[in-house]
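Form 7-S
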Amino acid sequence: MSPLGENDAMAKGASGGRRLGCVAVGVVVVLSAVVLVRAFLLDGVSGALLACIVGEDTVYSARYSDRGFRTILPGMSEEQVRHALGEPLRVQELDPPYGAVWSYSKSAKKDNYRIRTVRFGEDGKVVTKTAEFWLD
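Output:
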């Protein structure tokens, strides 16, 4: 093989490696964007799109904020949740052993809205929270 042929082969290999590197960078960027969008949108991409397309009429409790809602973790006390979000709009006591559900949002007209609830166990500690878009 002539020296020119070897250079051509090395150039082809280098360009293939560059393409592979670009694909890897693209994959990392896309995955990072997905993680950031999921972290930013409490209702997910589908909830955000539905709210834009069909509209919403969500009413939140006086001190509610998405930022505060993100801080709610399993095991937190009722007092800690009140400190982060204020008083809920509604408290629904559940039959034992299920505790209670605090609702921080509702629909103004029984229409499409963003659900924000915190469920407590019988011990008064957070079990789970719900953030989703309700389509009616």
